[in-house]
């Protein structure tokens, strides 16, 4: 009996998730990528297929979850605490880009899968999950409407940055990092404006939909 024989399906997903993109880059987000990753880790192929019975979206979901975890490992709370809020957000998104960089072709294919009409809702959930992980790492404890607006704005920033990143051929992805810095600056200005309106009794009267539109479709 091997060390992997007693793993649960969830444990197998977690084990194979970081390996899947290197195979998906060539085979696409298809069963072949699962089979290759399973072979690499000594996992029975039939069991691996069960672990990813939810298909391409499930494979991508598992990979992105592994990126969430690796991001937190790369930037522990004590390291982030020395930074400003703006720098924390930048550092977290940049850490994600660094983790994704070796697998940009797999990421390009993943974004194409998630852009399909039947997968848009799940794609939104993955973006929300990434933004939630980042805001929690920053130390955000908001429970009011701010909890939702912060995550929606950051998920829009992250999504638009990924679209630049997958086609960025600049040194050390400098164009993506510059794009990200501009978008995060937009978020910080929006948060300051919200605070000003609240203090003046304006509540949440800013046009959130208009702001999100600017983040998702900005001029590069």
Automatic annotation (TrEMBL):
Pathway: Cofactor biosynthesis; ubiquinone biosynthesis. It comes from the Bacteria. Residues 123-191 form the COQ9 C-terminal domain. Coiled coil: none annotated. It holds the Pfam family COQ9. Signal peptide: none annotated. Keywords: Lipid-binding, Transit peptide, Ubiquinone biosynthesis. One of its GO terms (biological process) is ubiquinone biosynthetic process. One of its GO terms (molecular function) is lipid binding. Belongs to the COQ9 family. Membrane-associated protein that warps the membrane surface to access and bind aromatic isoprenes with high specificity, including ubiquinone (CoQ) isoprene intermediates and presents them directly to COQ7, therefore facilitating the COQ7-mediated hydroxylase step. Participates in the biosynthesis of coenzyme Q, also named ubiquinone, an essential lipid-soluble electron transporter for aerobic cellular respiration. This is RpsU-divergently transcribed protein. It comes from Sphingobium lactosutens DS20.
